[in-house]
Amino acid sequence: MAISQEISYRLERMILDGGLAPEQKIPSERQLAERLRVSRSVIREALHELQGRGVIETRHGKGSFVSTMVPGSADLREQGPLMHLFEGHPRTLYDLLEVREQLEGQAAFLAAQRATSIDRHRIAKAFRALEETDPISNARPDHGFHLAIVEASHNPILVHVLNSLKNMMLMTVQASVANLNPRAEMRKKIVLQHRQLYEAVISGKPASAQKVAMAHVRFVSKAMRDMEKEGSTLIRIPVEQEGQDSQRGTHD
Asked: Can you tell me the distance from the alpha carbon of 35 to that of 37, in angstroms, rounded to the nearest whole number?
């Protein structure tokens, strides 16, 4: 790896770890060169690389700033800066699963309280689609099932936040499907968790729905962490490729 690529990777880690926040001004080339102990030309090259990927943006006369990671009105199918960080930094998968655990847990709680007859019909339809799809490649139906529950929460802010992260969340589902579903024991547990979530929401049990939703995402996260600890390399499928795979199946 070239030195400039190493530096761009380290800067990305600073962004992911919160050392550099969205919209924050990047330190000057001289300051970064001193801090990272490399030449200013290396810093310039690294910043140029990050700018090309949309991770930072340069404002005329003001300097370079960390980009907004999740613009509110972006085309959700775009390869935004967060998507690039997801692909380049393994830890981001678990950061996303932490977000899913909290938000989907709350969504399940509200859906169990607020779902209308139409919502319950949509959730049931999404659950049937999930059950009828090959579990080895069912990422999109899996995602669709969770999304139907989110929409039944009738909290527009929660729906908007999760929709703005749609592709990011889908990638966590793809990772779960690709790595866990081929293992019969894991697959059985995930199928059971989905059924428990479905039944808790449909029967209007908020506390149970929240508990099951959060436990499901925690299970997925721990299972993949354990795989990595055992020496396995996780399979990561970019969203655009999964569209082709969805002809064979779909989500977590």
From this structure: 6
Could you give the CA distance from residue 160 to residue 127 in angstroms, rounded to a whole number? 22
Residue 190: closest CA among 232, 251, 101 = 251
Burial of 113 (0-12, 13-18, 19+ CB in 10 A): middle
pLDDT in tens, 199-251: 999 999 999 999 999 999 999 999 999 999 999 888 876 554 444 444 434 34
Measured between alpha carbons, how far is 144 from 127 in angstroms, rounded to an integer?
Answer: 8
pTM above 0.90, yes or no: no
Closest CA to 240 of 114, 75, 46, 5: 75
**Angstrom distance (rounded) from CA 188 to CA 48:** 47
Alpha-carbon separation of residue 186 from 35, 141, 180, 219 (angstroms) = 45, 18, 6, 10
pLDDT tens digits, residue range 73-105? 444 444 566 666 666 676 788 988 999 999 999
